[in-house]
Amino acid sequence: MGKTHLIQAIGNEISKKSLKKKIKYLPSEKFTSEVVNSIKNKNIEKLKENYRSFDVLIIDDILFIAGKEKTQEEFFNTFNALHERNKQVILSSDRPPNAISALEERLRSRFEGGMITDISLPDVETRIAILKTKLQEKQVDISLKIIEYIASNIKRNIRELEGALNQIIVYQKVNNCIVDENEVKTLLKNITCLLY
Question: What is the DSSP code (8-state) at residue 95?
Answer without folding.
Answer: S
